[in-house]
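Moderator note: this is an archived Q&A kept for reference. The question asked for a predicted structure of one protein chain; the sequence and the answer are reproduced below.
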Amino acid sequence: MTEPNDPPKPPTPKKPERDKDGGTGTAILERSKLQRPSLWRVVMHNDDYTTQEFVVHILMIFFRKDPTEAHHLMLKVHITGKAIVAVYPKDIAETKVQQVTDYAQETGHPLMVTLEPDE
């Protein structure tokens, strides 16, 4: 019998239960290799109506380009007729194209932005 002032005894540790294969029941999970999503290019096309300032604005707002890079890309679109402005996984690229197209239409600009697979 224990005395009222005796400290309680710690619980006795249990031995791990073994399964029929002699293991401890801990499963080993294998990692499967994840494939990176395919990338898509967002391409901006030149037209005779959209202002250069608006294109720079779009590049800064929707594609987070700094003013210098946005201006450089705008000139590339203007001179060559089109330029790759960003590369994203397909769902993000589609969203960016839709956002830019909607914004351009709302503001009265015929700016065209398309997608193409990144090779």
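Archived answer notes: The chain has a mean pLDDT of 88.
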